[in-house]
Write a structure and sequence with these properties.
With 126 residues, the chain is mainly β. It contains no helices and ten strands. The strands form two sheets. Strands 1, 2, 3, 6, 7, 8, 9 and 10 form an eight-stranded antiparallel beta sheet that branches. A two-stranded antiparallel ribbon has the order 4-5.
Length: 126
């Protein structure tokens, strides 16, 4: 995968406290499942992400959005994934532990079908 950005975890920072990244790649193997439950072989993908830190230094909380477009053999648009949420790092001694709440959306261009799922999660970076 090619990632554009720099600094903390390959994420570029600007003067507003925002972090952003862009990436592109190609799935060499591995089948994925579409919204109708059918397997397909993915090809190219592109992704964008934006985070805004709003609580303390080091960053203790952020809002984020991430989007990914996955193509089917090799460049026909197939799936669009979007994630929007809030991440909080409540423990100053363990800033690599993040609690997340968000909404994930997936839209399948092939079957014109999508879904939206709320989620909660624990993320550990290392």
């Amino acid at each position: 995968m090619i990632v554009l950005g720099h600094g903390d975890a390959l994420v570029g920072r600007d003067c507003t406290g925002a972090r952003k990244y862009a990436g592109a790649g190609y799935y060499l193997s591995k089948d994925l499942v579409d919204q109708a439950g059918h397997r397909f072989h993915p090809g190219l993908f592109a992704e964008l992400g934006w985070y805004y830190d709003f609580w303390g230094t080091p960053e203790r909380a952020s809002v984020f959005t991430e989007a990914q477009l996955i193509a089917k053999d090799p460049v026909t648009g197939k799936l669009f994934n979007h994630d929007l949420g809030l991440g909080v790092r409540p423990f100053t001694r363990f800033l690599n532990l993040e609690l997340r709440l968000g909404i994930e959306s997936v839209y399948d261009f092939g079957v014109s079908k999508g879904r939206v799922l709320p989620y909660g999660g624990i993320r550990v970076t290392f």
